[in-house]
Amino acid sequence: MSLLVLLPTLNEAGSVRIMLKEIKELNLPVVISDAGSTDETVAISKSENVPVIYRNGKGKGYGIQEGIIYAIENNFTHLLVTDADNTINASEIKKIEPYYNKYDLIIGKRVNNKLPTRSYLANKLLTYLVNSLFDEHFIDTCSGFHVFNLQKYSGALNAKNFDIDHEIICTALAKRYSYKVVELNYTPRKTDVSKANIFSLIPVIQRIALVRFFKR
């Protein structure tokens, strides 16, 4: 079993260096999937000798799908995806080590959860929808932290933007993949500006319903 860490990035120069250093301290390979950062994100990654994937589209979904291709081409069996903003510290990755090769999907659940109000409400809404449609009991479906079996997810994802996070979870539920929820300490950004608004939530809601009713 071999694990690759993927960080989808867009202008994360303020946090990406510490993330990369801490991941490398865990002796884990890591790759950046960048959406055209205009700050020093790519330069910092290269200075840390980390491979950079220049994704074809700006959305997070593009980044994860291209990360899957990269991981498979380089003979990895599992992919860990987490945000590069250091809200979930890289040291938390150690918590998944006993589990990732036993389950098809590991889902991060944030604790110490001091989310900005809009993010908190978005998480409540989307988690409620997943629980209602799939008869589950999740607390947090919006952490952005996932570890999955590449054999199961190769060719399984279509989302191009932030709806990818819920497509990953809902695909596991629809296809009855094994999964485990792991609690992870969370620290909010010091200057956190939520990207969640009613318009950004609509594609996520559509994706959840699409997977529930059409992906089996």
Mean pLDDT across the residues is 93
Return the string of H and E elements.
EHEHEHEEHEHHEH
Which of globular, elongated, flat, extended, rod-shaped describes the shape? Answer: globular
Total number of helices: 7
Coarse structural class: alpha/beta
Low-confidence stretches: none
Cα(first) to Cα(last) distance is 27 Å
* Main β-sheet description: 7 strands, mixed
* Helicity range: 25-40%
- Sequence of strands across the biggest β-sheet: 3-2-1-4-6-5-7
Strand content: 15-25%
Describe this structure in words.
This protein has 216 residues and is of the alpha/beta class. It has 7 helices and 7 strands, in the order E-H-E-H-E-H-E-E-H-E-H-H-E-H. The protein has a 7-stranded mixed beta sheet, with helices on both faces. Helix 2 links the parallel strand 2 (30-34) and strand 3. Helix 4 (117-134) runs parallel beside helix 7 (198-214) and helix 6 runs parallel beside helix 7. The longest helix is centred in the middle third of the chain and has 18 residues, at 117-134. It is globular, with a radius of gyration of 16 Å. The two termini are 27 Å apart.
